[in-house]
Amino acid sequence: MANSAQDIGSPQYPVALVVGASGIAGSAIVEQLTRTEGWEVLALSRNPVSGSTARHIGADLRSPESIAAALNGERPTHVFFTAWSRQETEQQNIEVNAGMLRNLLTALNRAPVEHIALMTGLKHYLGPFDAYGKGKMPDTPFREDEPRLPVENFYYAQEDELWTAAARQGFRWSVHRAHTVIGYAVGNAMNMGLTLAVQASICRETGRPFAFPGSETQWNSLVDMTDGSLLAEQMVWAATEAPGSEAYNIVNGDVFRWRWMWPKLAAWFGVEWEGFSGEPRPLEEQMRGSEDVWARIVEEHGLVEPDLARVASWWHTDADLGRPIEVVADMSKSRLAGFTGYRRTQDSFIDLFDRYRAEHVIP
């Protein structure tokens, strides 16, 4: 229990503060906790989480004054930090993203915080986007006890902020290193699930093949992914059941090859597919100029989001699928600690596509 709990007292029941609540991971945490009896849920994001019973808190994480004012009088016991702001360089990523976490931690200095769960990712092992897969990396599968790479990385800066605050304020912490996260969100900057769904929808509309955009290595190598709902389960488990303060990898638990998965995704959309053929075919090139096609699809099918940039993050999917290296993570650490959650990635994709269709996001 944080020492600051003595200042204002602890609530009689757990109060969750989900930061980045409208994103893939944040909305999944909100969904899980609002379905769990006994939790009060505070959803901090720019926009309210649609259809949620959580109490929305609007604030600018980049402004210490804004976040301090927004959280004045709030008494969260468990904090889930999933927010992220993409910047042009890694130094800017460090300044902005570590700064946002620091602003939040400062604003919570007198709150009765027991645990803070921080979402990061496998770039902890791969390096940041502008040094992606360059230099010496640990062998796969990635394990949590690997030393940090000798490069600047905003994940490292965020961990340092978390650990410093934990030593000062007395709360437990957990870090959750996810692979590519797929789950329900619109307007998210890193959303492979929706991006591939939009690619396939445009391909069906135009009659072009659903072409794999990535590298030969990614087409043929083993890979894993992270379902947003499973990430939420692990973060809640770490905050309420896991012993001590630890970092955990979080992936679905199965592995697959894109040469096996790609035809199954194409079949769901009813499109012809093409695999790797000689060289990568990035989505930023394949889909260039598709705004009018998407606008036509939206109008014909009565979809809810006409802005192609809010449903497709071509750059992020290109980065993930264009890797020239195998990327898989080991889950032994959290398994041995008692976390047994599992998803089959094929089901994660299909369930996600079904939901997007039901919500009129894709045709």
TrEMBL record:
Transmembrane segments: none annotated. It comes from the Bacteria. Residues 74-363 form the PRISE-like Rossmann-fold domain. CDD domains: 5beta-POR_like_SDR_a. InterPro entries: NAD(P)-bd_dom_sf (IPR036291), PRISE-like_Rossmann-fold (IPR055222). PANTHER family: 3-OXO-DELTA(4,5)-STEROID 5-BETA-REDUCTASE. This is SDR family oxidoreductase.
